[in-house]
Structures are given as C-alpha cells and as structure tokens.
Amino acid sequence: MTDLIVNGKVHAVDVEDDMPLLWALRDVLNLTGTKYGCGVAACGACTVHIDGVPTRSCSIPASAVAGQQIVTIEGLKTGDTLHKVQKAWIEAQAPQCGYCQSGQIMAAVALLNETPNPTDDEIDAAMTNICRCGSYAEIRAAIHIAATSV
Amino acid sequence: MAFKPTRRFFIWSGLAAGALVVGYALTPFSTLDRARRIAGKGEAMLTAWVRIAPDNTVTVIVPHAEMGQGVHTSLPMMLAEELDADWSLVRMEQAPADIAFANGALARGFLTGDMSIPSFLSGSTDFLMRKASEFMNLQITGGSMSIRTTGIFGMRRTGAAAKAMLIKAAADTWNVPEAEIVAAKSVLSHPASGKRATYGEMAPLAADYDAPVDAPLKAKKDYTIVGTPAARFDIPAKVDGSAVYGIDVRLPGMLFAAVAQSPVFGGKLKSVDDAPALAMRGVKKVLKLEDAVVVIADNTWRARAALAMLEPVWDEGPGAAHSSASILAGMDAALGKAEAGNDWSSDYDEGDAPKAVAAAPRTIEATYRLPYLAHATMEPMNATAWLKDGKLELWGGFQDGLGVRAVAAEVAGMSADDITIHHTFMGGGFGRRAYSPMLPGNKPNDVRFAIAASRAMNAPVQCAFSREEDMTQDFYRDASVARLKAGLDANGRITGFIHAFAERHDPPEATHIAYDVPDRVARFVTGTNPIPWGPWRSVDHTQHGFFIESFIDELAFAARQDPLAFRLAHLGNAPRHRAVLEKVGQMAGWTTPAPAGRARGVAMREAFGTILAQVAEVSIGDDGRARVHRMWSAVDPGEVINPATFKAQIVGGAIYGLTAALYGGITIEKGRVVEQNFPDYEMVRMTEAPHHEVAFIESGAKTGGGGEPGTAPVAAAVGNAIYALTGQRIRELPFRKFDLKTGGQIARAG
Question: What contacts B10, CB < 8 A, 6 or more positions away?
C-alpha cells in the first residue's frame, strides 16, 4: 500500500511500485482532471504539484511521492471559490478544447507562487506545456491578470 | 403542435413540460416522428432547437460538438439574437446524435437554395456541402460549417419564429395590435397600456400558435448579442478539472484496453504469445484481432504495461515497401507521365494556359514538396463502449455523432437504432475525430476495439491509444508534390498559370486563384498515396496555400515588384481580396522596413468562404532556424458572430499551421511511421508563439467559416519572409530541415 496525500486527503492505494502517479490519480482515485498527453514528460498535460513543485505526473512513480503533498487541478479551489488563476483563466477566456489547461493552470500557479509578477520572458520560460489549439496568447494574458488580482 | 411546410424546410412548435419548444425540422415527417419517439415522459417534444421555460430561461439545443471552437456559444448567440432574449438567461444543451438534429439537409439547402455559390465553384461545390448532399443524415462538426448551415438556416429562423409566436400570444392576450408589442431582453411589453410579461410567462400561450416560417430576421444594425465577445459556456468546466473528455469517462465495473495495431498500414497479426501479459496483475484478457492486439486490464497503466511485454509477429504485407522517398518519387513519376501524355484531371482549365505560358517572354517554374502530417490532438484517440442486452452505448468526443453511430452499427453488426452516442468534450479535433461514412479513410479503430473488448468482457471498456499509437496510426494529411509554371510579360504581369500537383482531396476551391490570369489551369494526378488519408485542419488548403502563395511570391520577385503590390496589381476584379491585403499591409506597416535582422512575408487565402491575408515577421536564430516574431491577419468572413472566439480560431489556426511549417513531418520508412511522440514531432510552444494581431472586415458577404482559414496561408507567409531575409527560397517543408544561416539550403538530418 502506498499512502498518497492528494488535495489534503490521504488515500491508501494498492498499486505497483512503478505505476506513474498520473495513472494512480486518474484510474485508481478517479481524479480525471489531470490529463494524459504523451507519457514522456514532453507535453505537460499531466502537471500536478508535489510539495509545491510543478511535476509531470506521467513520469514519476506514485510510490516515489508517498507522504508528499500532491495537489491536482481538483484541489485548487478553496471550498467553492476558484483560485485566482482559475478566475483569470475564465476572464481571459483562455481554453479552447481545454484538454491541456489543467496542466497549464498548475504550471501557472507554481510560477506565480515563485514569481508573483512575471514578465513575458519569465512566463515563456516557465510555461513549456503544449497547447495544440494555440491558446498561448490567452494563457499569457491570464497569467498577467492573475498576477495583478488578489 | 403545429408545423407548416415550405419548399425546403419546416418549423414546428409545441408545449413540453410547460415550456415552449420551437424546432426547425429538416425532413418533414420522418424527422418529426423521430423527434416524438425520443421525447421524454410528459414531454410532447423533447428535441428542439429552443425551449423557453416558465422560469424564463431559454435553452438552445446545439447539434454540434464542442472542440474548442466555441460553437456551443456562438450558435445560441445567433438564436438568442433573433429571439431578442436576455443573454444572461440563455443556456446550452448538446443535442443527442439523432437524425432530428442532422444538418445535412441544411447543407443541402445551402447548396440548392438561393445562396450564391462563388463563381469559381460553379460546376463543383464546396467540399463538405457537396458531401453533405450525398449524406442527408449528417451531423458533422467540421468544414467550418456549423455557423454557416445550422446557424444561418436553423438557429436564426427558429429564434425569429419563436419571437413571432410570443408576440402573437401577447397581442391576443392583451387585445392590442401585434405591431405595438415590444420584445426585448426576454420580456414582452405594450408601452401604451403598461402591460408586461416575461417570455417564460407567455410561453405556454404562445405554444398554441403556428410557428411561422417567414418571420422577419433582424437587421445587423439592431444586433445586441451577435458581434459581442460573449463568454463561452464551456469554459468554467475547463478550469477546474470537471470537464469530461472521452478519456475521462468512468463507468461502474469499467475496464481499460491498450492496443497495438500493425505498425505497417494494412498489415495483419500473424501470432502473439499472450502468456507474459496474462501473467501480469490486473490483466483480464488479450484479444488477438486481425490487425491488432488488445490487452484488457483493470486500469490503463496495467493494460499498457502488459501490452509492452508482448512481441506480436505481423504479416506486414505489401505496405512494407513504402517510404516517404519512394512515395514522393512516385508522385514525381506520375506527374511526369501525365505531362508526357497530357493526361490530367483538372479543377479548372480556363483559356489556354500552356500556350500562354509558352508564348510569354519569361517563364518561371518551381517544384514544391510537402511531407505527411499527423493531427496530434492533445487528447489521444479513445472511445468507451458498453454492449449490453443487444444495445450499444458509446462515449467519446466525435466530430460527427450520427456518422459515428453509422460506422459503429457496421462495426458492431447492429442496427443504428440500438446504438446510443454520449457526447463528451473533445480534446482537439482538427479532422481526426470525424468518423463518418463520408470519410471512409478515417477508420474508427478506437471505437472498433472498444466494442470488441466490451463484447469479450461483457463490461464497459475504454480503449485509449497511447500517444505513440495515436501518432503512428493516424490518417494523415498526405505528402504531395506540385509543379508550378507561369509566364510573365514585359510589364511584370502574369500571362498564364499552370498548377500541376499530385494528390487531391478537397475542397476544390483550394486550388482557386483570385488573381487576374485569364489563361490558367489546375490539374492533378491521384492514386499516388498508399498511406491512410484524412482531413487535416483546412484540408487541401494546407498544401495549396503553401504552393500557390509561395510561387506568387516567386513571380513577384522575378517581376522585381513588391510582393504585396504585385498581388494587388493582379486583383482588379476581387475587391474583398484587395481589401484584406491592403488592411494587413497597413497593420503590419508593410511599407516601413522591418526591425534589423527581420523581414516580412505576405500570403493570402480564400478558404471555407472566408478571405484572409497574413503577414509574418521572421528572423533566423543562431541555430539556423526561422523564428516568427509577429503575425498580422486581416480577415473577411462576411460577418462575425463572436469576435473573441473567431479571433482565437484565427490565431490558434495559425499556430497549428506554423507548427506544421516549422516542424511538422511524418516520415514513412518500411511502411511504418517513424515519429512516435512529441519529442520527435515537435510543437510550437508559448515561447515560439508569435504576437498575432487580427482585424476583421465584415463585408456583409455570405458568412464564411472560422476554424480552418487561419491555418492555410501561414507556411507561405513564413517562407516568403525567409526569402525576403535570406534570399533562400524554401520549397519543401518543414523549414527546420534547412540550416537557414548557411545560405546554402543544406538539408540536415532531423
């Protein structure tokens, strides 16, 4: 059994040592907001926070993060109140198909925690996730909105 | 319930659960019968385009799938506009995959009705429109067609009809003339008497009136909803992880399937020892299908890990002989043979182009080559099937609900009536998720394997492709070769234009040139592509946008003219094309020099009824690669429903095209796809996404599409900028194959 602390709750999951965290989240805990895109840490759709660090969950075994604080897109809200980055995403109307946006939002939250008011260059450097719809301009706008909101 | 026939369409109405429902029926009686049959208990008519409930909410039923293009919002905007509804009270529901919601007949009305077809398409027609007329039961989301058919023919007229009924009911109830009733923001009022009722209050009475087929439509100047950047209905669920895509479907007792298909197209499974997979934890079964191995387990990871343990042996068949090089050589040979025998098919053949070119004082010719491309939607292909008690339920993101039902019926050997489609959000479409009888190349393999697995397990099963399976088992934008040839006179005017190319799909408008060239021909050979083909965002425009607009640029430089001025000089009879070119020139500051180390290129396209011109500003990095810093697009789609979503489509479409231009290339070796995943099929990411300004020109012409036009001209605009900057004319994509710093067009590996 592996104890995964996801969005503040402890889950004892019975999975193989090499099962990536992504699949433990999606198929065992049914937290499907975290997406599979490539399985090789190239696209960022599966980004979650592990002890606050944005991490591509497809390429880290669940067993390796036992006991650490895992936050997924489902855990960003406080009660029913959206995180300011989520609100900014709506204000900027950022998503198109939306599939990559969980990962984009998790990457952006981590960026803003480290760099509260990032420049475009800092955003470019931090936001390496792929969006096939090409919503990059709206994502960048949303990050600037979030940076200036409380 | 009442309906009135006209020559081409019916509007019907009724009262269901206290709500006024108004629908727009496409084929009169069969569709209505169908709608009745699927009505819920206590509801006279469940399916409809719009429902006005006692609480004054307006629910618009949208028959198209949402894949990020915003159609779940823009179609309701069109209906709400004509209804004069309060936008804050408008809701959206996606229609089930049922004939009652097909837009094929709408498309046919578009074709056969009084809508004018562009003159260059006379004798032919717009690709999907033409196909639609062959498949009456189409419910397609593609071809940039939702707004153009469902919106214009269904949504607007239904909204107007519902408003007319509400006004009639109010006039009779209040005993005042209809003309004195004001309908605005979901409220009916009679100013003289002070009487007032909400739409919801009047809806039950309005249901007693016939739905008029000829209710007047509003003038554009009176619009209050259409043309505003309305917030999309689908976005809140896409920021908190709650939006359900096909791959997120979870059902009680559900199993997960991983699949390996023959790596060579057309190959068959010879044998596989399934013991290593069956020995692994959670694995339920291994299916040995004709062309694939399917491992079914209790979660995705276990299914994939077990599949990776297997070493299937394939009978590769004749497909193993193909490579990109051999296919392109075959295209060259076919073009040479057609040339030698003067044996061509043609899209258009006006005047005598070969004669005009031969007689010109100067002749310019060039050969262009393009590679295969994969769709690479962010959500890999998947479907979930549950075969139970002779009925099949399917979950997934499909661009054509009715189409997938039809193909699933064939796969499952069942009647379509026994199949229910549950639409989810689509994690990207771009043509890949269009399963339809009209696109036989788009094999519904995820659906097929899910059905086979559900049948074998007697349980719901999700079959999701790995990224590698998704990329190597696509139906690809095809590779192609084009030979262009033109004559220039002493004044730098084009006297004749010959566009010869290998492989053609649709739309035929893709080879059209708006330029004033009396003698011109677009001719082609087919049968040279052995790799599965499917429509890829903007379809043949992806090739011809690059071929034609790069070559026009070559002609401009050969004529020693400014490329933008050269185009304008050849557009005397095309005011809309002139307007977008002039506009984009102003936006980009075309007549002022680009910043040091950069240059600009221009290209233009008319695609899916929309005309647009693009400028790209490019530099060359130390790595020898092109970097696109800025783009400008001037777009004339006739009219704009939602400028925010339309702009996002143009910008996003351009990034899709830019990814292909800079990086895109699927390579065939020994009959199989070489590229496996994003590390070897690169994507434009944020740091490479250009700053892109978009301006719309609403010429009032017939409404054009938004999803695809932005993709079409990008490669040419970038290539033309590379030429302006470096003097290197790149006639083969992707650009990354060339070290643009060497000045020698040296192709490099990888």
Answer: B3, B4, B24, B25, B26, B28, B32, B213
